[in-house]
Amino acid sequence: MLYSVEEIDTEHDLYEPTVAMRQVDLYPVGRVTRSYIQDELENKSILLVALKNRTLLGCGRITIEGDVARLSHMVVGEEFRFTGVGTSLMKKLMETSKEKGATKIVLEASSEAVPFFKSFGFTTVGNTKILDILDLPASSMELTV
Q1: Phi, psi torsion values for 84, nearest 5 degrees
Q2: Residue 111 exposed, middle or buried by CB count within 10 Å (0-12, 13-18, 19+)
Q3: Contact by Cβ (8 Å): 137, 110
Q4: For the chain, does the N or the C end have fewer beta carbons within 10 angstroms?
Q5: Hey, CA dihedral for 87, 43, 64, 136, is it positive or negative?
């Protein structure tokens, strides 16, 4: 499968599809509003998308705070999972974080996603916690880049 990973902004014509993808695929419990996705970090963040022929395959968001990159809202469309899209997206998110001066990437991962992030060298820090509105367990993870 040939696809590209590129950066977009909130004015890009594929931005709205990323909001929908993040709202539906990332938070299927149905309790998440659009404002939860488009939070106070949205305009300060870098949004990367994986595309094939202008079809959105996945996306991820990083927010640089000093020398720390916070990875959030990473999702790959269900039909494109286990095809390498997530790996390519993750590699580009890591590369972009480093280029922007981050020395560490932090994230909160669902229990299902922990093995994926561990495969890139992320380690779990602290105890599993429950994410606020989602009422789902998550592990804090970090990686030195």
Answers
A1: 100, -5
A2: exposed
A3: yes
A4: N
A5: negative
Report pLDDT digits (tens) over 66-92. 999 999 989 999 899 999 999 999 999
Query: How many C-beta atoms lie closer than 10 Å to residue 117's C-beta?
Result: 21
From 17, 101, 15, select the one nearest 7 (Cα to Cα).
15
The DSSP call for residue 42 is G
E strand or H helix at 23, and its extent? Answer: none
Q: What is the pLDDT of residues 7-26, one digit of tens each?
A: 999 999 999 999 988 887 76
DSSP state of 25: I
Q: What is the pLDDT of residue 99?
A: 96
**DSSP letter (8 states) at residue 32:** -
